[in-house]
Amino acid sequence: MFTPAEIVIAVVILAALIFVPILRRLLGLIIRLAVFFVAVAIVAAGVTMILNNETIFERPGIGQRVERFLTKNSAAASTTGSGSVTCVMEAPPPPPVTAEAKPRRHAEKKEPQMQITRNDVSKAEPAPLEDVYPELIRRSFPGIPREKLFQLSTDTVNSLGGWKIAKSNPSNFTLDCVYTSRFFKFEDDVRITVEPSGDIDVCSRSGLARPGTTSLLRYFPGDLGSNVGHVKQFYEALEPKMDEVYKEEQDKQNAKKPPQH
User: Fold this and answer.
1) What pLDDT does residue 135 have?
2) pLDDT tens digits, residue range 76-130?
3) pLDDT (tens digit, 9 = 90+) per residue, 160-213?
4) Based on the domain organization, do 58 and 31 belong to the same domain?
5) Who's near 261: CB < 8 A, 6+ residues apart?
6) Measured between alpha carbons, how far is 176 from 188 in angstroms, rounded to an integer?
7) What is the DSSP string of 27-69?
8) Are residues 68 and 13 part of one domain?
9) Among 257, 144, 125, which residue's Cα sits nearest to residue 197?
10) What's the predicted TM-score (pTM) here?
């Protein structure tokens, strides 16, 4: 229920809008501007998603995708394809050692606590269906040497427009890449790691989320699907190369078989 004071204020405002033309025109202008900016924002978001080869109409659904694209500025592949897995590129600093933390001679030994990393979280339990993004399911290529996978990943990045390898580390089979958008020249960081198991892990984070960035856009938490799009783009470009490698291996195996009479 409204209080008498609230009713009086509403009546005064309504009367002012009716009998004062300048206020009526001002309200109309505000409404038109609001509609204009909302329309521009919707068009800009749609164009951005198209450029990122993303859409809101795929799994897990419109609501989940819109929420993620507006509130997340990173994406990471995982075994489950969970959209809640985030991309953290900086190693956490070691905890400070204090006098109280030093072990005592007769102190009871404690079992070390397992530190759950991003990949451990993804393997802990299956993601609910409403959180599964097909683009974020980590691709695995067993049977291919790790060095070959690393070289093919490098070739794939070099073939993609807008991508550049900032640092290649063959010792741990990791590529640190930078993606630069076509029109606005925004930069995103992408890390690709070839695991010993044959898994190729991809982790993408908006450049605006880099520590120490001063851009005002850093206060906007979403990426409009750009990072999910980077993961998807890399995998889609890599998979045909993998198919060729498997086909070559199959041809070699068939060539070794004795002819049948």
Assistant:
1) 95
2) 999 999 999 988 887 655 666 655 544 544 444 443 333 333 443 334 455 566 7
3) 999 999 999 999 999 999 999 988 889 999 999 999 999 999 999 999 888 888
4) no
5) none
6) 11
7) HHHHHHHHHHHHHHHHHHHHHHHHHTT--SSSTT-HHHHHHHH
8) no
9) 144
10) 0.73
Chain Cα centroid distance, residue 114: 26
pLDDT of amino acid 129: 63
Pairing label, strands 199-206, 174-180: unpaired
Same domain flag for 2 and 75: no
Is 258 among the domain residues? no
User: What is the token pair recorded at 153?
Assistant: 């990943």
Total domains, the chain: 2
CA 133 to chain centre: 11
**CA–CA distance, 160 with 106 (Å, rounded to integer):** 60
Question: Residue 230's closest CA among 177, 190, 201?
Answer: 190
What's residue 89's pLDDT?
82
Mean pLDDT confidence for 25-51: 72
3-state helix, strand and coil shares in percent for the chain, rounded to the nearest 5: 45, 15, 40
66 and 131 inside one domain: yes
Q: Which domain holds residue 230?
A: 53-85+116-253
Instruction: Enter the tokens of residue 207.
Output: 């450049």
Q: DSSP readout, 117-156?
A: -HHHHHHHSPPPGGGB-GGGBPEE-TTS-HHHHHHHHHHH
Beta bridge partner(s), residue 103: none
CA distance linking residue 148 with residue 248, whole number of Å: 13
Q: Is residue 165 included in any domain, yes or no?
A: yes
Tokens representing residue 237 in the block: 């470009």
Return the closest-CA partner of residue 225 out of 89, 49, 34, 62.
Answer: 49
Q: Is the confidence at residue 149, as pLDDT, over 80?
A: yes
